[in-house]
Structure prediction request, 1196 residues.
Amino acid sequence: MSSIPTSAEAMGAAHEAPALLALHALSVHFAGVPVVDAVSLAVRAGECLGVVGESGAGKSLTFLAALGLAPSAAAVSGRARFGATELIGCTERALDALRGRHIGLVFQDPMGALTPHLRIGAQLTEPILRHTGCSRRAARARALELLEQVRLAAPARCLQQYPHELSGGMRQRVLLAIALSCDPQLLILDEPTTALDVTIQAQILALLAHIKRERRLGLVLVTHDFAALAGLADRVAVMRAGRVIETGSAAQVFHAPRERYTRELLQAAREPAVPGGAPAARGAGAPVLAVEDLTVRYRQRGARRRRGEIVALQAVTVAIAPGESLAVVGESGCGKSTLTRAALRLVGAAHGRIAWLGREVGAWPERRLRALRRDLQLIFQDPLSSLDPRLSVERLVGEPLEIHHGELDAQARATRVAAMLERVGLDPALATRRPHELSGGQCQRVGIARAMILAPRLLVCDEPLSALDVRAQRQIGALLEALRREQGMSVLWVSHDLGAVRRGCERVLVLYQGAMAELAPSEALFSRPLHPYTRALLAAVPVADPDVQPGRLAQVRLTDGEPPPAGGCAFRTRCPQATARCTEQRPPWIEAGAGRWVACHHFERGADGMLRG
Amino acid sequence: MRLREPRVRARLAALVLGALVLLALFGPAASPYSYRALDWRHLAVPPGFIAQHWLGTDALGRDLYVRTLSGLRLSLLIGVLATGVSVLIGVAWGAGAGWVGGRVDAGMMRVVDVLYALPYLFIVLILAALFGRGNIAVLLVAIGAVGWLTLARVVRAQTLSLKRQPFMEAARAGGLSDLQMLRRHVLPNLAGTVVVYATLMVPQMIVYESFLSFLGLGVEPPRASLGSLINAGARQMLSAPWLLLVPAVVLIVLLLAFNVLGDALRDVLDPHQR
Amino acid sequence: MLGYALRRIAGIVPVLLILLTVSFFVIRLAPGGPFAAARALSARTRAELRQRYGLDRPLAVQYAAYLRALAHGDLGRSYSLRDEPVAGLIGAGLPVSAELGAAALALGALSGIALGMAAVLRRGGVIDRALAPLAAVTLALPSFVIGPLLALIVGVWLRWLPVAGWQPDTPRDLVLPAITLALPLIASIARLTRASLLEVLNASYIRTARARGLGRARVLWRHALRPALVPVVSYLGPAATYLVTGSLVVESVFELPGTGRYLVMGAIDRDYTLVMGMVLVYGTLTLLANLGADLLHAWLDPRVRHEAP
Prediction:
């Protein structure tokens, strides 16, 4: 291990040191079309360069091309110097001596980035053996040490495991360990947190901040999210359509951006995509959707040993009043999608009471449900795959009318479809297109039009923004909010991101591992979270401000607890306040104030609510 | 002409197939001979223009041009009909299993797995030998019963993956009945795959038929199929190689055209699949 | 892995039993019977023969007797081939057929994988460009066409190799039949390998491996090849079925003394014991080949092992 310079030394060095990696007028063309256009950037030792831009801005490709990893169809020109070596036009062999040895890389998509048939140990020792020529035994010891450094819970066992046995967060830590394995001078991270849950994302970012402090290496952080850069980057470059449009120190870019586009991106990172508004006129009458003790169990298929039941949803009780907007929030696997599917009677294995518009429909056969379904519509996370690829926009939007309004003739249908397309902001010229010919935002507008054309009483929005670019997110968020106010319908908003639903929803239900953790009016939840998990979620939401974010990252626990065995409180292994009682008893669902509910043995102690960002 | 372009290849293959079909239908009528007529004055003559035996004659003086084309007609007929049988069984079985799911699916697919692992063509062979030497109807059913297994698997996988697509959930949430979902969203999305597999299945069926005929279990003389002609030709390839070469070349062109068309259609219809 | 293998092997026995049972009754239900065809036997002789082979007893009794004999390894005697024990016929013919099948499989798999890899390693090179059209042509050539054509060209016109016949210990006799049988395998496997290797090389873990500076050769052999072979291995099941039927044709074209001819002969002559023996041999072979393919698949991909069969 190299000696560890203090962070003050590292900062001081950053200003004098020559560039580790210097790109000069680097361009990448595909079939003559420039995708990266004359990019010049530099990173010094001990410095973190943040590169930010929307998807398709060419930010990943820039660094792939510099390291000879661009697809073979790409034509790369310009210069890229690493120390004294010119990388462009360099032989594969010479690049191999640098990659993994002096330059570590971590890519997006931790799920696919590890070779499926090799154990973690083999993949981790591979670069060590190749580049340092040490013994197998020493490489193994080093691998174990690395896994400890990236704070994996059980490093020794992890070495024996295959990638598919690890979670996304664990894989990202392994990839980080691999990139760090030969003590590189430069570490390039391409969207390292994008595919991860909010709390895991915070852990990885905090870990990166820690590594940056501990080792004097140059860091390149490529991301679409300004907030992810806030605690880490010393300098920021903004890319758009293959060009660098603005560079500067982090303080400069965050506080006084020059370009309008930069301001837009910053604004997107700072404000929730769903704008706040006056609550819709609250209608009287029965809840549009109510579930009581809703439980969903799946029988697990698998090798005999692991066969058993998975409880996807545990006794959830909640109701949405007419005109109300309710958010269901939680991380992947928390049961939020299962809740909406079960409440809409789209999964079979549900137990408990389900009421639509005041009618008990839990035991109804599918045939009876069909006519009622028009009042409860759904829009999806992935806009493209939620549309039949073979149908035109016109037919897609018209289909609900064909099913539920058989009395309309083709002419009347076409008129309504045209009006709806206009309302959701789609050019009528797009009516004959197929989904794959549209952008993500346009597809989502089609999905919204399909749902809204029946004027439903409830719109269930299953993470409709998370697959979209930041700017499309804002547009779609605004559209949904406007429609909600116009129509006075109820909205059930499902999201993994607490920050996103801050303004748009009146009440928030937090789920953890299939069970309810906390239910509260939005204002109260954000100002005074009661459940430790809610607090962890709030603390994890990155803040796009370089003055605030480092302090927040410093508070994040770097290790991740393993999921606990059944019984007791599901959150106990990650909870800072856990006691013996949490292992023995499942916390009851108790009323903790006006309209507030929480499932925690310790909620009184957490009542200070000072963790708000 | 750019043969790398799948559309160009598809068009070319379709053109060749069209020509072969026309030849099979109307070709024999152009010759003064019939497929069973013996011409004692011209025994085993090589291709040429001797007495309008354009492609020569066999040892009994039967005209090879007419026999090859009527063999082609029979092979095409059996290939297309047997494919029809296979497609019907395969789509019904696969879509049914995939759509119903659960235990029914597991049971139905277990049947396919077991049949798949058996030397199925052997059983067909035994059946053909036992029940239907020369009986075309038996031959058709026996051959058609082989091909559906792969299609059933493909259609089931496709149905399952369609069922998991969010747009199916969207359809269910939109209040469509099972029948409406099948008719509007499942079957149309399966159609491309089925067309591709059916195109690739026809040549397979033709091969199976020719294979049985080659072993002497297919059509009986004096009728001819491409397989029985090749078998007869192979026995005399030392003295009269054209008896082997002519039907072999026709069969190769036929199979090649179907294979190229199927592959090209697959490239056009779903470029994501291999 | 071992548990998985044992479970799969145990799964073969019932399938084989079903196959034998179905075959047993189907051949007996078919019109005609042994000694019914052709030869002019007196009614009395025929009845005597039927009694001698136990064919006069009820089907259920015959079936029970067959299973009992099978459990003792007795496959019975052929009716048509001078009372030869079926086990002996198989013992004489199977080595020839097995040698042919193994040679074709090895040739097909090795050269197919090599060709597919070569095409990928030199994108746009001669092999890459020639592979697709050559494979298409080869796959349009059924074995009963390639066989005679190869015999005609290489054997008769060029006189390079013997056309037909079989002498023990002369591998030259096996060259043409093995190539005939292997050609479609080579074409399919080369095509599969090429497509799947191209796909794997685009996977994100290959980029990660390259980013570790492991070098082109190591990335290919250690990270890309095993996942790329998964579709090839899945193809081995159908390939085995193809080999079994293909060997029938090839043995007939090149007049090899294998076991293939007994099947057709036995079925036509209603030689029940001979057909059952063939069903047993080829059924076991195909099932074992499919099993081998599945086990290889489990070895290539650790995710498969962790699922139920």
User: Anything to note?
Assistant: The mean pLDDT of chain C is 82.
